Amino acid sequence: MSKGLVVVGLSGGVDSSVAAALLLEDGYDVIGVFMKNWHDTEVTISDECPWEEDSKDALLVAEKLGIPFQTIDLSDLYKVRIVDYMFREYEHGRTPNPDVLCNREIKFDVFLKTALELGADYIATGHYCQKEETVIDCKPIYRLIGGVDKNKDQSYFLCQVNQEQLSKALFPIGHLRKSEVRQIAAKYDLITAGKRDSQGLCFIGKVRLPDFLQQQLKPKEGDIIEISSDHPIFNLNEKTTLSELAQPFLLSREMGKVIGKHSGAHYFTNGQRKGLGVGGKAEPLFILQTDVNENIIYVGMGENHPGLFRSALFMNTSEIHWLRQDFAPGEGNSLPVFARIRYRQELQKATLIQESDGAFLLFDTPQKSVTPGQFAAWYIDDEMIGSGVISA
Question: Is residue 216 in some structural domain?
Fold first, then answer.
């Protein structure tokens, strides 16, 4: 007897291929669906069409497994919800995460609703994470747990999903390591068994981000200003308030010296090393901050420059999301957590401090390259319970 109907998002990669195979093996009825998220050639630099190749591989996997297959075109919605948002964020000096947005807006919203309309009981993806169910006050609660393969744990990318979405989601490979996934693909003789993981932008492929951004954000020459590591502004002490710790250093042109030119502050992000085009330094230069209003990039020499580190960050109430609302501490209270501010970062000890207008994350150890527009996600042990957009 079937365990239910599952629509699998077949991406043309090995992870989703094995997810489909394992679901069949486990007794589910499976439909494979490929999501076409991009076709706008006006903002595609390369002549390659990676989605076409991926679609063909997804079809071959479905045929090998003997499951129905179809392609759905979500590109119009993707442009509005993801790409246009990306351009706006970069234009305002923030750095969005398209992978987090894609999961929130496309896979666990539009795709999920489409699957349910097809009569599905669940959707499944090839994410390296795990779902568990518990009961609190006679109500089912779904827990999002990190993947067993810590090098591939993708719970961060799902930090914006909600309880209803998670209740309909399956993650068949979350208990496996990448090497085991490839072994299973080879056992089933799937064409994706040896396929390399995708690189570049999640929806376009082998395109450098600055090249993509230049399609709508035009070049604008500005100054690169170096700030010395011994500048007094970096001297924090016990009198420094939490609000001050969570704000970027107030850098200005007068604090440093011009050492080069750039093609547009909106093309760069905090912590970036490559692409500056300035040499002759004893150590590499890193971007401390970008100022899109004045079109200035502030840089510092060396990966341990104090301007790269902050002990706290702030998130506005409107941009905070709780997967586990029962853990929310309430205004004026705090919660010890583990947190990360980027994918694959090791979890860091921190304290979430709830205020009326938002929340602070205060880290035990200063964090490198805190970037406005990125997502901070926080955990209890290895369970992801909430997230928020870094405001500044």
Answer: no
